[in-house]
């Protein structure tokens, strides 16, 4: 039985940075990790990937050959991957014996709540390779500082959950920067628990741009509350405790913790007893050709989203 994560989220939410940091963390607690890059636009990877979709198809080639823009090109790439799923299966089979899998997907949100190709790829892999996957949906935490954007993030999260049909965890990423774009109107628990959204109405009414959509916003909030599915974990990828807490949630959702309870306890004891040599800004050898000075590495500019 093979376990792993499907890492998705809007552009700029930090998916590639997450895969880099998460793979390092999991390796330090004793898991063999394989990162699978399925983003054909991500040509500057900060990690060494075990499988790279660019070996099959490149977004730049698709755009040039078919005259498509970035969004249309990504849809074409996912359709192409679905039609050539045997290629991906063959690449994964040597890894699934003893690796934990991280799938790094593109940041085009339509792929995960509207189009079916990405979902079909995942479902075929789950069925044929007996994978136990959790969808980790990253949302930039700074959206909480804008009520309108936060409501949009709620609707996107709900739509993605219903479409993907996987164990699902929504994550407010970059939680250490949550107030960098403005002070929050409520305590952090309000945004993570997603309860009593009617309190957002006052904040929305203060902005003339949002006030005109008051009725629509109320209906969206009612839908989110009626389903009662959306809540958020938080993540600071530079903080080992924050990453460890998220890993425990993921392990519970996909069954990893139940498949090897004793092993899981041993893993986390490794980080509980003291500091670990986890360099979040470590750049893998594959990245060195893209960057001359890794001290200037900025996760927002080089996230690949």
From TrEMBL:
<dbReference type="GO" id="GO:0005874">
    <property type="term" value="C:microtubule"/>
</dbReference>
<dbReference type="GO" id="GO:1902182">
    <property type="term" value="P:shoot apical meristem development"/>
</dbReference>
<dbReference type="InterPro" id="IPR027417">
    <property type="entry name" value="P-loop_NTPase"/>
</dbReference>
<dbReference type="GO" id="GO:0003924">
    <property type="term" value="F:GTPase activity"/>
</dbReference>
<keyword id="KW-0342">GTP-binding</keyword>
<dbReference type="InterPro" id="IPR030231">
    <property type="entry name" value="Gpn2"/>
</dbReference>
<dbReference type="GO" id="GO:0009658">
    <property type="term" value="P:chloroplast organization"/>
</dbReference>
<dbReference type="GO" id="GO:0005525">
    <property type="term" value="F:GTP binding"/>
</dbReference>
<keyword id="KW-0547">Nucleotide-binding</keyword>
<dbReference type="InterPro" id="IPR004130">
    <property type="entry name" value="Gpn"/>
</dbReference>
<protein>
    <recommendedName>
        <fullName>GPN-loop GTPase 2</fullName>
    </recommendedName>
</protein>
<comment type="similarity">
    <text>Belongs to the GPN-loop GTPase family.</text>
</comment>
<dbReference type="GO" id="GO:0005737">
    <property type="term" value="C:cytoplasm"/>
</dbReference>
<dbReference type="GO" id="GO:0009793">
    <property type="term" value="P:embryo development ending in seed dormancy"/>
</dbReference>
<comment type="function">
    <text>Small GTPase required for proper localization of RNA polymerase II and III (RNAPII and RNAPIII). May act at an RNAP assembly step prior to nuclear import.</text>
</comment>
<dbReference type="Pfam" id="PF03029">
    <property type="entry name" value="ATP_bind_1"/>
</dbReference>
<comment type="subunit">
    <text>Binds to RNA polymerase II (RNAPII).</text>
</comment>
<keyword id="KW-0378">Hydrolase</keyword>
<dbReference type="GO" id="GO:0051301">
    <property type="term" value="P:cell division"/>
</dbReference>
